[in-house]
Write a structure and sequence with these properties.
The chain is α/β, with parallel strands linked by helices and 344 residues long. The chain is built from 10 helices and 17 strands.
Length: 344
């Protein structure tokens, strides 16, 4: 493999004087000294030029059900070839993958793969999509874009599992080549993002608007409910009202149960009743497709027709029990209502 510092310049940066560079990829806009890394740990100043430090290095390469992303309206029951790199531009106190997200080295990256090799591997396993996951894909946006382009040529779709903490210009470029994205909307207050994630709320909301209004990327949203931190009825209602108003009633929303992790290992797990109540609030706000995750809940994991109430896609954890939408090109076989998403 060619040397990173010679071959893989990063996009979205500018000189900052004195040999420093300023990264323009995400709202942190790190000013990086020569030889140092940005906050995300994956973008580095090499000789007054910003380079991708982990181009073609990957962590994990495995088959996942698309429901695990979670994406429920994007080819239910299909498989995604999933991988990540290392690093993240947020520092969430509840991160499940902190061993990857906060690493400063490539020690956790076990293999290398060109974009073409990943596309060929996906073809060989006959999967529907490739998923950028396990760590934040926007920090290796140039590599993810190259992989997505190679996959598109091979007839493979691309999925981003992301926190959406990215500046508008690179967001437009990144999501324009993605076929689907699940954006982790971690809370709905600035204080939650600041105190628990090391980030800000408004850039994530702007990313959601860009994906929905300016791209063809299929969008779903996940909200992890953490007891005492972001699970109040008022916050959930405010979030659902915003989604319904700004993104529309057809955006699939997943409420996910928290399990103790990382720096929040003493916070109790989310009671199932909290997720059930959140789903009710979302439905009352007009959202048509609301799901619960990380718990076993047939009601909350099934896709129901908003027209006649028929159960269209029944799931048991990540397993699809039946899918009535595949043969009907996404239309309810009982009343003809079109369900938004990709089902054929």
């Amino acid at each position: 493999m060619a040397r990173v510092e010679e071959e893989y310049p990063a996009l979205w940066w500018e000189p900052a004087g004195g040999g420093r560079v300023q990264c323009l990829l995400c709202p942190h806009q790190c000013i990086i000294q020569d030889g140092e890394r940005g906050f995300c740990t994956g973008r580095m100043n090499y000789g007054s030029h910003m380079k991708l430090d982990r181009w073609q290095y990957i962590s994990g390469l495995c088959m996942d059900p698309i429901e695990k992303k979670p994406l429920y309206h994007f080819y239910p029951g299909s498989q995604a070839l999933s991988f990540g790199t290392a690093g993240c531009n947020l520092d969430c106190a509840f991160c499940q993958n902190h061993g990857l997200s906060r690493t400063m080295t490539t020690d956790r990256l076990t293999d290398t793969a060109t974009p073409e090799e990943i596309a060929e591997t996906a073809q060989s396993y006959n999967v529907r999509s490739v998923a950028f996951t396990y760590n934040e894909p926007v920090i290796f946006a140039e590599y993810a874009i190259a992989v997505a382009n190679a996959c598109r040529k091979a007839g493979i779709q691309s999925v981003a599992v992301t926190a959406g903490f990215i500046n508008p210009q690179p967001a437009r470029t990144f999501f324009s080549v993605m076929d689907a994205a699940n954006v982790d909307l971690k809370g709905f207050t600035e204080s939650f993002y600041r105190d628990n994630c090391g980030g800000h709320l408004m850039p994530v909301l702007e990313t959601l608007l860009i994906i929905h209004r300016e791209t063809t990327c299929h969008l779903e949203i996940t909200n992890l409910l953490i007891p005492g931190l972001n699970d109040s009825a008022a916050e959930i209602k405010a979030m659902c009202d915003w989604i319904a108003r700004e993104l529309g009633q057809d955006i699939p929303l997943h409420f996910s149960a928290f399990h103790p992790a990382w720096r929040l290992n003493k916070v109790p797990q989310t009671p199932p009743a909290t997720l059930t109540n959140a789903r009710r609030i979302a439905k009352d706000a007009g959202l048509r497709y609301v799901y619960t995750g990380n718990i076993r809940d047939r009601e909350g994991s099934t896709t129901w027709c908003p027209g006649c109430g028929r159960d269209l896609v029944e799931r048991d954890w990540f397993t699809v029990r039946h899918n009535d939408l595949e043969a009907t090109q996404g239309r309810c076989p009982q009343c003809g209502t079109t369900i938004p998403g990709h089902f054929a």
